[in-house]
Every structure is written in structure tokens, then in C-alpha cells.
TrEMBL record:
CDD domains: Zn_ADH9. The keyword Ubl conjugation does not apply. Its cofactor is Zn(2+). Belongs to the zinc-containing alcohol dehydrogenase family. PROSITE patterns: ADH_ZINC. Keywords: Metal-binding, Oxidoreductase, Zinc. It comes from Lysobacter defluvii IMMIB APB-9 = DSM 18482. Gene3D superfamilies: Medium-chain alcohol dehydrogenases, catalytic domain, NAD(P)-binding Rossmann-like Domain. It comes from the Bacteria. Residues 11-318 form the Enoyl reductase (ER) domain. This is L-iditol 2-dehydrogenase.
Amino acid sequence: MSLMEAAVFQGDGAVAVERVPVPVPGAGEVLVRLHGCGVCNSNLPVWAGKPWFEYPFEPGAPGHEGWGEVEDVGDGVEGWKRGDRVALLSGKAYAQFDVANADALARLPEGLDGRPLPGEPLACAMNIFRRSDIREGQVVAVVGVGFIGALLIQLARSAGAQVIALSRRPYSLEVATQCGATATFGTEDWYAAINAVNELTGGAGCPRVIEAAGEQATLTIASGISGEGGRLVIAGYHQDGPRQVDMQQWNWRGLDVINAHERDPAVAARGLREAMEAVADGRIDPFPLLTHDYPIGRLGEAFQAMQERPDGFLKATVSL
């Protein structure tokens, strides 16, 4: 039996690396030898050991931002062969191998050998962008500039929009400017940020606002800068309890409020393929945004850095 290394989350910040059997692809599945996996902010509660999870996690879980090359295919799989370089949508990618449905893979662009390319968050960005309906000449606000927010700034600029970026971290605002934002504001003072954007827009607010941090503060700010008849897009992952919104404000302004989290596997896979096309044609450039890389044995350090967000940190990957 072939063995591989895989991370096992044990709760309270403890992550072990264990030797476990390499998975076998079933019918319609592909086995991928992983080169790396992105470290997702949504997994912080898993690493921290929140009581609503059961530990230990299965080996490799909850890694879901993997890329690598095809190692083997299951029965009935066509179009994929050993050595094809791919990004994949899977759930146990903090490991040297993982399996995915054959429809949940996308080919990596040519000429990127050896470069990290976590496809799943790029797919999310493409699906959020589609749901945002951004048009040339619009003023778009992105509230919360992490990896996804920075990608959305790039996509909005590629569509011909002007972008206002808001974040509490000065480093993130520097990244936003590098990605094409034409104005940036800090968010330590929620209402000062709202007033600054409304003053910049002559009181009209923004026809498109993307909330991309998943916090009460960013949701409040995003609501306050949305223009009448505009679209408020919820891209942040709100997972730490209920939120409060000003429904009178939403009603009065006639906002379209869009939850841009996709759960249809076919939609997610389409976003993954579109993301690889966007990387190939230059609409998005994720590589400067991947600021830190760790070996799998230091995965816990990656989560620690993501929690603390030291200056210069935006997105971590794990090499496998």
C-alpha cells in the first residue's frame, strides 16, 4: 500500500503530519499529486479548535485550494492523463495526494511550471465578479482587501470600472493601490470611512459594493456606501454569529443584495475554468498576492500568521 504525508487537524492549534494511505480514484474521479495548497481564512476556526467541530479531522481536510498534476484516473474518465497540470476543487488537499471529480479540474495555463496557483479562491473571485454585474465606467467599492478582495479589484479594473478600496490594514491598502484601486480609505473608524466615500462620490454612493471580509464592520460600511438602486454583494464568509443590518437603509435605497457564495459544483467548476483563462490573459495576477509559503510540517505556522496578519502578509500557501 502506498503511503503519503497528510496534515491532521487536532484542535486548539495543533496540526500533526501523519503517514496515511494514498487515496484511490473511483469511477469518474482523478487522483492528483499535489504540488501545493492555499491556506484559506475560512479554515481559521478549524485550526483554532472551535467547539462545533469534531476532532481529529480526516487526513488532508479541510484543504480545498490545491494544485498539482494528474497521477491516475478512475474508470470512465476521459480527457485527463498522467502529468496534466491542474487546479482542482476537492476537500482534503493538505496532503500529497487528493482525489476530485473529473469535472472539478481545470488545466493550469501554459508557462507557469513551478509557480503556486491555488485555483479555488480564484474560482470564487470569478463567480463573485459575475454576480456583481460590474460595468465599464461604474464606481465600485471593495470593502475588505484580502486575497479575494485584491483579485476583485483587478477584475473590476479590467472591466473598466473605477475602484475604491477600504481596509483596516495599511498594507492591504498598499496592495489595493498596486491592483488598480484609484482611492483607498482605512476602516478603523466605520463612519469616517462611510463619510469619506460618500463625500468622494458627491453623496451618491457606489452603484456596486462588494463586502469581502465577513465582519460586522465591513457589512455596516458596505451598506452605508451603497448607492440608490445599487447592488450590494456579500462575498465575505460570515461564520461567527448573527449580523445586524439597517433594513430601513436597504429598503429606502432599493438595494439588490446578492449572496455571492456558490454551492452548485457545476458553477464552482465553471468559475475555476474561467479563473485559469483570466490568469492566462492577464485579467488577474495572483502571484504577487501569494506572500508566504510553508512546508506541510509548518502548516500551523501558516495559520498563526494568517490569524496575526503581520505587515507584508496577504495569503499563504503550503508546499507539498
